[in-house]
């Protein structure tokens, strides 16, 4: 039963509960009109303490397409956060006005704190370099729809594996499906954190390899998940400049990839995927962004308890 629950960590829901959400997302994609009034009279609050295009807009579009309404802020400067209000007090107040809230925050753990003080479901829309569970729902729905499965996949994850919250959430979620192999492609400085390695990969006996070049592994991949080197997570500009162009996926590298490999990216991209790759039918990152809206419709509907 998902009604009334919060989603803070990708492991908060069982794989069966995730499947329930994906099945509903499939139905919404098939027949969106049937769900156009599912959340009539209900309100989603989007509390974004950090910039966003896809996550905020897709949450808002999702609620509007369910017939609900939205309130919120896209920057802490335009709320009483700028006067020093705590996350706990903000969510207690928002709970008086809205039926469900999505929160993005630069501090790891802030959405969990919010969920502890909230009387409405709270959805983590990304907390610092920690987790981004609704991006993971998006990523899983994309693989499920395009590859037709969530097991028996070799997944290359490339770029900023140290600070990339989408990467951490994806690895955690995929660790529960069978026969998954990860090829982790990054510069030494941006390798996957030890806690993910020990507590997720090693603990669950997931096969993985850390490599430094896309070209060395691309021919063995079912999925190549590209990520951006995130300027906002670096402590100094020099390190960012040195590492920002570590990987650029272009047509030349795509020629080495299997014909049925798909390229995913949570977006935004900076220059880690050349624009020429957008024309390749294996480039799936914009349809992935669209699936993000549908899966958020399904998630909101389930947490509000308005759809089976
Ligand atoms: N993928 C993602 O989280 O994008 P935004 O930062 O634009 O929301």
Low-confidence stretches are none
Task: Tell me which CATH architecture of the largest domain applies here.
Answer: 3-Layer(aba) Sandwich
Shape by Cα distribution: globular
Please state roughly what percent of the residues sit in beta strands, choosing from under 5%, 5-15%, 15-25%, 25-35%, 35-45% or over 45%: 15-25%
Write out the strand line-up for the largest beta sheet, numbering strands in chain order.
Answer: 7-6-5-8-9
Q: Which fold name fills CATH's third level, the topology of the largest domain?
A: Rossmann fold
Please tally the helical runs, counting DSSP H or I stretches of 4 or more residues. 10
Assign the CATH class of the largest domain: Alpha Beta
- How many strands appear in the DSSP assignment? 9
Q: Could you tell me the mean pLDDT?
A: 95
**Whole-Å distance between the termini?**
10 Å
- Helicity range of the residues? 25-40%
How is the main sheet built? 5 strands, parallel
Ligand list:
phosphoric acid mono(formamide)ester
Series of H and E elements: HEHEHEHEHEHEHEEHHEH
CATH 4th-level superfamily of the largest domain? Aspartate/ornithine carbamoyltransferase
From the helix content, strand content and strand pairing, which structural class follows? alpha/beta
The count of domains is 2
Round the Cα radius of gyration to an integer and report it.
19 Å
Characterize the structure shown.
With 308 residues, the protein is of the alpha/beta class. It folds into 2 domains: 10-131 and 289-304, Aspartate/ornithine carbamoyltransferase (Rossmann fold, 3-Layer(aba) Sandwich); 133-288, Rossmann fold, CATH 3.40.50. The chain has helices spanning 15-30, 54-65, 87-97, 110-117, 133-146, 165-174, 194-202, 237-243, 251-254, 285-304; strands spanning 43-48, 69-73, 100-105, 122-127, 153-158, 180-185, 207-211, 223-226, 262-264. The strands form 2 sheets. The chain has a 5-stranded parallel β-sheet, with helices on one face. Helix 6 links the parallel strand 5 and strand 6. Helix 5 (133-146) packs across helix 6. Phosphoric acid mono(formamide)ester (CP) is lined by residues 52-55, 126, 135, 266-268.
């Amino acid at each position: 039963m998902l009604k009334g629950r919060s989603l803070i960590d990708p492991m908060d829901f069982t794989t069966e509960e995730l499947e329930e959400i994906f099945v509903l997302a499939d139905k919404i994609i098939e027949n969106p009109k049937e769900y156009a009034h599912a959340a009539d009279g209900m309100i989603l609050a989007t509390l974004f303490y950090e910039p966003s295009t896809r996550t905020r807009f897709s949450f808002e579009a999702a609620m509007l397409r369910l017939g609900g309404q939205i309130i919120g802020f896209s920057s802490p400067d335009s709320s009483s956060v700028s006067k020093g209000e705590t996350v706990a007090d903000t969510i207690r107040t928002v709970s008086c006005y809205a039926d469900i809230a999505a929160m993005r925050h630069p501090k790891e753990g802030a959405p969990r704190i919010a969920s502890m003080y909230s009387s409405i479901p709270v959805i983590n829309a990304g907390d610092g370099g920690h987790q981004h569970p609704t991006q993971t729902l998006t990523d899983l729905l994309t693989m499920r729809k395009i590859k037709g499965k969530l097991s028996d996949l070799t997944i290359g994850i490339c770029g900023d594996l140290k600070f990339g919250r989408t990467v951490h959430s994806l690895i955690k979620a995929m660790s529960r499906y069978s026969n998954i192999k990860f090829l982790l492609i990054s510069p030494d400085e941006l390798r996957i954190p030890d806690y993910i390695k020990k507590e997720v990969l090693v603990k669950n006996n997931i096969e993985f390899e850390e490599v430094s070049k896309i070209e060395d592994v691309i021919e063995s991949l079912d999925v190549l998940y590209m990520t951006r080197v995130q300027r906002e997570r670096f402590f100094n500009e020099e390190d960012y400049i040195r590492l920002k162009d570590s990987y650029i996926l272009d047509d030349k590298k795509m020629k080495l990839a299997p014909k049925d490999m798909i390229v995913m990216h949570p977006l935004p991209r900076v220059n880690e995927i050349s624009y020429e790759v957008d024309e390749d039918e294996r480039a799936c990152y914009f349809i992935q962004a669209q699936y993000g809206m549908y899966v958020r419709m399904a998630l909101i509907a389930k947490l509000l308890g308005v759809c089976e």
